[in-house]
Design a protein that fits this description.
single chain; 1242 residues; alpha+beta; 6 domains; nine-stranded mixed β-sheet; five-stranded antiparallel β-sheet; 31 strands; 43% helix; flat; GTPase activation
């Protein structure tokens, strides 16, 4: 049981109320007759019955031009007994009283009809109605109907009047009216005791007035019989919690806080009234009024009311007796302003300060401990009034309306237990209506979940009085059983009043809630069973619920269904519901079928198997491939026991998948793939394993009326689904499959009697279609072999019966089977290769699952594409793949696949697809530069220049050109090799990956230029495909797409290759360069154009400015610099070769003399392995030479550690180069002597 909305009343003529409240008052003045006596307003009903309805859809009502939620602009009040509804706007009001009427079906229902409409205020200047509440009053003598005696309407006006037809209490505008009535006290755990009493609370802008409810009731009862006319009108907020008494601790705490250390504490805690207000500054405030202070009493109010009633009666009697007939003769006495009692100042004790939040409304719970507050932020806050704190907040409820529901615990066994004297428990729920979302929600208190939500429309109004019967106290409430509506929802569009019904168990914990829910259901079922008139729909619902319950035994289902069926058959034919009888008979039939199949599977008699001569040869031929396939088949992962295919099928699942038709046949309903496989396992798995008499099973299924086509689909489903178990004993399982297939083929309706063997049989075509679509290659091949043999035997028997010939029958059906078996064998070998696990550390990826259907839909390149993905998963390098294809490396599986697909897996085909697969993987992860390098290497392996050129063109336009353009513009922008961060931002890869990428670009463009040069010398290759796979339909292969590409413009490719080489060199050597600055305008415009188009290219002539700059540079200087750099690197032989081209030998000799001194200085002074001979030589050298050697810096040498023979040879060259009259010739001789001494001593 859950929350529900009940309609208990409907509003009649509600559109009339709307037109009256919003019409133009000038065109239709209010007549004097509307000021009727109050007794005509107070028409009460004598009770009502709630009727359960469905939710009404929200309909926009445009009558009267009011499309807006007009009810939100009105003041609405409903009496607690729902017998009077007041709707007011400004000075107008409409009263709707309860009435009973009989609908078309003869059922009585309560309605609210318009009993009075008119203007409430007749004061000078007028005053608007801001708040209304209607209170049911009761005398000490209860009425015989159990209803309240009469209902009072209390109205607050902007002028400050509050009319019970009484007097002025304060001069400010009335903001809101509140009422509290007596509540029967219950045991409460709160430490603060709050007395429950009746009070009326009036909120003004700067004051509030409280009126004791019992005194007010006495005054109103005294005036009830008088013809009191009054004016009423409109509506802000606060709460009165009643008189409370603090405990001693709280009394001492408050005295210490308010009075300080020396505060005195009274002997008994004072009684005080607690008020809670919401608004701004503070957001929520708590006020306390100490009892005994000057508080306004009602004695003056009663005197004023009596005086006013006297004046009213005197005026009425004057009219009757003929006094004052001419009113114009005397001026009416000026109205005296009523006397207002002075207000008692009340200071705030504490509150919840929130400067930005403004409270809009507050709603007190019936137990006076909690309150709900709404604000302008769209929040609903739950306050604990005893502690003065906020304990919960809901978001997203702008303009929310609140109400409370207090649900008592239902009477149960607890009422008769020893603890029955304890008070009944009550559950508290908060009802929130969000008009902007059009939803009504129910929340359990205090931290409970949402227990109900209803879509009710956006124009409704939540009516929560917050009070019950006025005039009731602890004495008069004994035994009072008056039913009042706590929360009502008014829908102005449909005119429906609804109330919320909440079961008590929704407030309990989960464990207790389930038990309480079961108790409710048991009670409801008991009541239903005891009633004599039970609707047929109840039987339907009960039987369907029973049949869908997984815990009900099969025997119980059979007995209950049979009992119901027998009961229906014993009734009169005209009284029996045909649908219910049909349901019982069909379910009995299905239950009998389920029981028979179970008994056959548990039978001990097993039929003998026959031999299959033709299939045994086929099995021995494919046995090695089957073993390897079973070896690589992935193992099953961990699963639950109930998900295992060996788990028994419940009767409820069996019944849910079968249904009986009107022709007394059984139809299988295909839902999910899992349920379909479970049903197939239940019917045929024991037969496939040889544990059940399969002919009896097939006969039972045929007698049940299941079509052979559906049985065939179930059989093939379980055969393909349980491939791993079948491969453990393939010979035995194949025999059982053959017998089952033959038994199903012999059923009536399987193979048509008029079938011509020269045409395609729908029966065998169903088997082929299932095998073609299956990804379980081994099971599909075995099923095809069995079906081929069975079809061949059937065709042969039909041919023998017709022709009596020894010739072998040839038909289109057998040709289809030959092609299908060939394709399945190819798929089995290919799938075995694809199942080979990748080596450890490889990239891996998901295993490609293939079937005949997927390969045919993959087009002519589907097979090569699958193998290229496998090559990527295996991380096979291009060189190794070439060796495998050339049979230099033993890779048996790959060679077997290539032998079965000689055309689809030719080397050029396979290398082209591998090239494309690697570049696709590189595009997904550009940081893996190895993928792009291997893609280029695979492209080099392609022998056909036509395919090479086309693949290069596609790679360039699809993957390369955009990234190369980004790299070029980035380097042009920064003027040097960019950093890693910039490369990742603009090119999408790091600096190292970008360097590798540019190198691959150079190789790719070189391959393209070589292929373009060789295209004219070699003819284009002719592509073909295997005959069995000629029906492939789908995308073209990479090789076919490559051959369709247009030729490229060689100079443009060369132009891009030059750019790529420049960028690669700049990234490799970190050179500062702006690439575009090295090209003229034509060269810049030609970049990144389509390589197949002809562009204006640079002329090739050298820039004159560059030529003049180069002419200014002496090439002999460059040669001398190169010689010195080579000697500095220790490359003496290459330096001697370049030295021959140097013209100025004198300058070169001086440069080499310094370099020789650096070498000798390193050997004598800076080497860590200085010998004794070297030290002695340094001492014998001339002082000039020693000083010169010490001045040399060997750090300028790129390779200082040079063998002494090379240095001696260099000094010899110096002597030859320098003339004898050279200034440094003598220094060269000293160096020659020193080097010779060192060489001799070594």
């Amino acid at each position: 049981m859950s929350c529900s909305l009940f309609e208990f009343c409907r509003l009649q003529e509600f559109k009339t109320v709307r037109h009256f409240l919003f019409r133009n008052e000038k065109s239709e003045p209010v007549e004097e007759k509307n000021q009727t006596e109050y007794k005509h307003l107070m028409r009460t009903s004598k009770g009502g019955i709630g009727l359960k309805i469905s939710f009404a859809l929200q309909v926009t009502d445009d009558a009267g031009g009011q499309g807006e939620p007009w009810l939100q602009d009105c003041v609405v009040s409903l009496s607690p007994c729902a017998d009077l509804l007041v709707v007011a706007r400004e000075q107008k009001a409409a009263f709707l009283s309860a009435k009973w009427r009989t609908d078309d079906s003869g059922r009585e229902e309560m309605t609210l009809g318009v009993s009075w409409t008119g203007t409430l205020s007749t004061e000078e200047g007028g005053s608007a109605c801001v708040c209304i509440f209607t209170s049911c009053l009761n005398t000490f003598f209860r009425s015989s109907t159990g209803r309240p005696d009469w209902t009072c309407v209390v109205v607050g006006f902007t002028s400050g009047y509050v009319r019970f037809y009484t007097e002025l209490l304060h001069e400010d505008p009335v903001l809101r009216l509140k009422c509290r009535t007596y509540e029967i006290p219950r045991v409460c755990e709160d430490y603060i005791h709050i007395q429950s009493q009746s009070d009326s609370l009036i909120l003004y802008s700067a004051a509030m007035v409280t009126i004791d409810g019992f005194s007010l009731f006495q005054s109103l009862r005294a005036c009830r019989n008088q013809a009191a006319r009054g004016t009423a009108a409109s509506l802000l907020t606060l709460l009165l919690l009643g008189i409370m008494t603090l405990c001693v601790f709280d009394q001492m705490k408050n005295a210490s806080i308010l009075g300080g250390f020396n505060a005195s504490v009274k002997g008994s805690p004072p009684a005080m009234s607690q008020y809670v207000t919401v608004g701004s500054g503070p957001y929520t405030g708590f006020y306390y009024a100490i009892e005994g202070s000057s508080q306004p009493l009602l004695s003056h109010v009663a005197m004023a009311v009596a005086s006013k009633l006297t004046s009213a009666l005197f005026s009425a009697a004057s009219g009757w007796l003929g006094w004052n007939k001419n009113k114009n003769e005397e001026e009416a006495p000026q109205k005296q302003k009523p006397k207002v009692e002075p207000a008692t100042p009340l200071s705030i004790r504490f509150g919840l300060p929130d400067s930005r939040r403004h409270g809009e409304s507050i709603c007190l719970s019936p137990c006076n401990t909690l309150a709900g507050v709404t604000d302008d932020f769209g929040r609903v806050t739950l306050l604990d009034l005893a502690r003065g704190i906020a304990i919960r907040m809901w978001k997203g409820y702008r303009d929310a309306q609140l109400g409370w529901l207090q649900v008592p615990e239902e009477r149960s066994e607890r009422d008769f237990s020893p603890s029955a004297s304890l008070p009944r428990r009550h559950a508290l729920f908060l009802v929130i209506y969000a008009p902007r979302r059009g939803i009504l929600e129910v929340w359990a208190m205090q931290q409970g979940p949402r227990v109900g939500a209803f879509t009710v429309g956006k124009h409704c109004r939540l009516l929560y009085a917050g009070y019950r019967l006025m005039g009731v106290n602890s004495v008069t409430s004994q035994g009072w059983q008056l039913h009042t509506q706590q929360v009502c929802l008014l829908d102005p569009i449909t005119g429906v009043l609804r109330t919320v019904n909440i079961p008590f168990h929704l407030a309990l914990s989960d464990k207790k809630s389930e038990r309480a829910k079961d108790m409710h259901l048991v009670k409801k079922l008991t009541t239903l069973l005891r009633s004599r008139d039970i609707d047929v729909s109840v039987f339907f619902q009960a039987l369907e619920s029973l049949l869908s319950n997984k815990n009900t035994p099969v025997s119980c289902l059979v007995n209950i269904t049979r009992a119901l069926d027998d009961t229906l058959k014993r009734q009169e034919p005209e009284e029996v519901d045909a649908e219910l009888l049909q349901l019982c008979s069909s379910q009995l039939k299905l239950l009998q079928l389920y029981t028979d199949i179970q008994q056959l599977h548990s039978a001990a008699d097993v039929e003998e198997t026959d031999s299959l001569e033709g299939i045994e040869e086929e099995l021995s031929r494919v046995a090695p491939t089957l073993q390897r396939y079973a070896q690589f088949t992935p193992r099953h992962s961990v699963s639950f026991a109930q998900d295992s295919p060996d788990s028994p099928l419940p009767a409820q699942a069996f019944l849910s998948q079968l249904e009986c038709t009107e022709d007394e046949e059984v139809k299988v309903i295909r839902r999910s793939e899992t349920e379909w496989n479970q049903l197939g396992n239940f019917l045929f798995w024991s037969c496939l394993c040889g544990k059940s008499p399969l002919h009896k099973v097939c006969y039972t299924l045929q007698q049940a009326g299941i079509s052979p086509q559906q049985l065939l689909s179930l059989l093939l489903s379980v055969w393909l689904h349980r491939e791993k178990e079948l491969l453990q004993k393939p010979e035995e399982n194949v025999r059982n499959l053959h017998r089952l297939l033959v038994a199903l083929s012999n059923m009536k309706g399987a193979v048509e009697e008029s079938w011509d063997p020269q045409s395609i049989s729908p029966w065998w075509q169903q088997v082929r279609t299932t095998c073609v679509q299956s990804h379980n290659a081994a099971a599909a091949l075995l099923a095809a072999l069995v079906a081929h043999r069975a079809a061949k035997a059937s065709i042969t028997s039909r041919a023998d019966s017709k022709f009596q010939s020894e010739w072998e029958a040839v038909s289109l059906e057998l040709e289809q089977w030959v092609v299908c078996v060939r394709q399945l064998e190819d798929v089995l070998v290919l799938q075995t290769l694809l199942l080979v696990p990748p080596p450890p550390g490889a990239t891996g990826g998901a295993t490609v699952q293939c079937s005949i259907k997927t390969l045919l839909e993959g087009g002519t390149g589907g097979i090569a594409d699958s193998v290229s993905k496998w090559v990527f998963r295996q991380d096979i390098s291009p060189e190794r793949l070439k060796e495998i294809l050339q049979k230099r490396e033993n890779k048996e599986l790959l060679l077997a696949v290539c032998q079965r697909f000689p055309h689809s897996l030719s080397p050029d085909f396979l290398f082209a697809h591998c090239c494309w697969e690697y570049v696709v993987q590189w595009n997904k992860d550009p940081e893996e530069g190895r993928y792009l390098c291997w893609s280029v290497e695979h492209l080099k392996m392609v022998s056909s220049p036509h395919i090479q050129q086309g693949v290069c063109t596609m790679m360039w336009s699809t993957f390369i050109a955009k990234r190369l353009s980004a790299a070029t513009f980035l380097m042009e922008k920064v003027g040097k090799a960019p950093k890693d961060r910039l490369c990742r931002r603009d090119v999408g890869m790091g600096d190292k990956a970008m360097t590798s990428f540019l190198g691959c670009c150079v190789q790719l463009l070189n391959i393209l230029m070589e292929a373009d040069s060789a295209v004219e010398e070699v003819s284009a290759p002719e592509l073909s495909i295997e005959e069995a796979w000629s029906g492939a339909e789908g995308p073209a292969s990479i090789a076919e797409l490559a051959l369709e590409q247009r030729g490229v413009h060689y100079p443009l490719v060369q132009h891009h290759c030059l750019l790529a080489s420049l960028l690669h060199a700049a990234m490799t050597f970190s050179v500062k360069v702006k690439p575009f600055s090295l090209f003229d305008s034509k060269g810049k415009n030609a970049f990144f154009r389509d390589l197949t188009t002809i562009q204006l290219m640079p002329s090739g002539d050298m820039d004159p400015g560059l030529v003049s700059v180069r002419q200014e540079v002496n090439p002999d200087i460059l040669r001398r610099h190169l010689v010195c750099e080579l000697y500095s690197q220790g490359l003496d032989l290459r330096a001697e070769e370049v030295m021959l081209e140097v013209e100025d030998k004198d300058v070169l000799g001086s440069q080499l003399l310094v370099l020789t001194g650096q070498r000798l200085s390193y050997s004598l002074l800076h080497s860590q392995n200085q010998t004794q001979a070297a030290m002695e030589l340094l001492a014998r050298l001339p002082p000039t030479l020693c000083t010169w050697l010490k001045a040399m810096d060997p750090r300028e040498l790129r390779c200082p550690l040079i063998p002494l023979p090379q240095t001696s040879r260099l000094v010899g060259r110096l002597i030859e180069i320098l003339p004898e009259n050279h200034a440094q010739y003598s220094l060269a001789l000293h160096l020659l002597e020193a080097v010779e001494v060192l060489t001799t001593e070594d």
